[in-house]
Amino acid sequence: MKKGVMRPGHVQLRVMDMDEAVAHYRDLMGLIEVDKDAQGRVYLKGWTEVDKFSVVLRESDTPGMDFMAFKVLNESVLESLHGELVEFGLDVEQIPAGELSGCGRRIRFVAPTGHSFELFAEKEQPGRYGIGNHNPEAWPRDLRGMKAQRFDHCLLYGDDLDETYRLFRDVLGFDLCEQVVDPEGTRVAQFLTCSMKAHDVAFIKHPEKGRFHHASFFLETWEDVLRAGDLISMTDTSIDIGPTRHGITHGQTIYFFDPSGNRNEVFCGGDVFYPDHEPITWDAEKLGKAIFYHDRQLNERFLTVLT
After folding, report:
1. Over pLDDT 70: what percentage of the chain?
2. Which residues cross the membrane (predicted)?
């Protein structure tokens, strides 16, 4: 049952050198730098996104994810979900409007996997970069690098997948699109959506709480993904794997690292989900093919390098 959560809104990442990070996300990935606040945080967005920002970079001694946020339909939905989160048994933190530049009030909670999430209803909407919303051209002419279109999802590692699934299903209204189960029938990976996308957030079972695997950004075509691979080599950027195809979601993908060690993905394609679709199930022994369809095996970095 949908609860009014519309889509991913933003992710705040910790980076260890802000100048290097901005060069990576702006010049290589092609996100648009839109603001910098009094705390020194830098704000960016994909060129098709209408909200002011979707990525916030915060300088820190350690890399990783501070929080991921979802945008809800309106303030009434935000207030209702606040009550349901408390009823679920979570501590909910109120964050005032303006703490993030151009964003309305947010509520923050920690999922059973140890990851911090936020919900918000209002954010400044300057519209799509360079083309606007009235008689728009096909694309802006001054895009850089990979020309990332939008922040799409995060993959997160943590221990309590069952309670996190119950939270996202029963309170936030997400659907389970795809899952990986072990021989005992235990779910060891879950791909959840609040939209028609293949997933808006995903979790893989891991003994430690609160680990960050990657933030993903959407590109338009397979040719764009191949071009991203060229740019990764041209800039001597650390690569994880790809270009290749996923079995899960059928997206076409490449993984690489920012200068602080946070993993990024750019991808195109992917399945479309409708609420009457049954979840797709993969057996754990087929996980290699499920993640990297062509190689049919997981590399060690994909499993072990987390921030």
Report:
1. 94
2. none
